[in-house]
Amino acid sequence: MQKCDAMKFLRIAALPVIAIIIGLTASVSARAQAKPSTAPAAPPVQLQPYTAPDQSASAGVPAGWKVASASGTNIVLSGPQPSEVIDLGEGVIAHDGPFQVGQKGPDGSNMSMPFSAKLTDKLTMVFEQRAALSGNPAPQIKFLYAAPLQSLPAGFQCGVFVIAVSGIATPGDALGIFCSLPEDSAQFFKTFLTFGSAPTAIAAKDVPTVAAVLKSYKIPPAWLQKKFAPFTAPASASPGQGTGSPAEVQMYLQAMQEQQEVIDRGATCADAGIIGTPNIQVARECGGWESSY
């Protein structure tokens, strides 16, 4: 792609959900100042269809990758190399309150964190909590890119992110979608995370594979409705109305469909090697200017 065409292409804002690509590496950052070169289109990644045993989700599995776990809309794949991971649809139940790393929240929730926090801060807390509960050191997360999704149902917050993770045994890079759902009457709220990650040294070559897998991820409407339902059941609700209702789920799906174009923008940014580059000549959609949500 010629540089002028790439810049015009990258200025179009958009970001999709439930379909993401894995992201940036140090080598990508090093190439950031270079002019993107024309390259032949890569052949499509071949995937083997897979459906979770409980029928809650499906995705394609590339050659050499294995299903590590699958239930409740969450499918986790492990790659042929250590620390290559694709985590599809991980859900966390949070309670509105001060964040205490390693401490679970009340009434069976996974953690406490401020509902009013920025989405980037919520994502950081989720990753820190995951590490603490697994007995791993706290990750150091650097946001290379972050931007919100638009036109979502009331109370929903979703955004795309690209991060570099250090302070762990194998430093890596990841890109994904993170959503924070509305708070219920008892101050509980759910989060929904889909991402791909890999060690920094090999993340670049994983981009097409992870992009294909994440685009293949699907959740049946009935399970999506269950996923969106409030943790605390409302005292009364009209059929077909409110959080987690079929009407709201349909609104969410429609919003995501309208923004599906974004995943392709993100892929182009990664391929061009300019995400996260602090250069005002680079489009904001690809991290030309610092952004957060």
The proportion of strand residues reads 25-35%
* CATH architecture annotation: 3-Layer(aba) Sandwich
The rough form would be described as: globular
Estimated helix fraction: 25-40%
Report the C-alpha radius of gyration, rounded.
19 Å
Output the CATH homologous superfamily. Answer: Mog1/PsbP, alpha/beta/alpha sandwich
The residue ranges in which pLDDT falls below 50 over 5 or more consecutive positions are 1-39, 266-283, 285-292
Summarize the helix and strand pattern as letters: HHEEEEEEHEEEEHHHH
Number of strands: 10
- Return the domain count: 1
CATH C-level: Alpha Beta
- Number of contiguous helices: 7
Structural class estimated from helices and strands: alpha+beta
How is this structure best described in words?
There is one protein chain. This protein is of the alpha+beta class and 293 residues long. The protein has one domain: Mog1/PsbP, alpha/beta/alpha sandwich (Protein Transport Mog1p, Chain A), CATH 3.40.1000. It is 26% helix and 26% strand. It is built from 7 helices and 10 strands. Strands 3, 4, 5, 6, 7, 8, 9 and 10 form an 8-stranded mixed beta sheet that branches. A two-stranded antiparallel ribbon has the order 1-2. Strand 7 and strand 8 (157-166) form a beta hairpin. Helix 5 crosses helix 6. It is globular, with a radius of gyration of 19 Å.
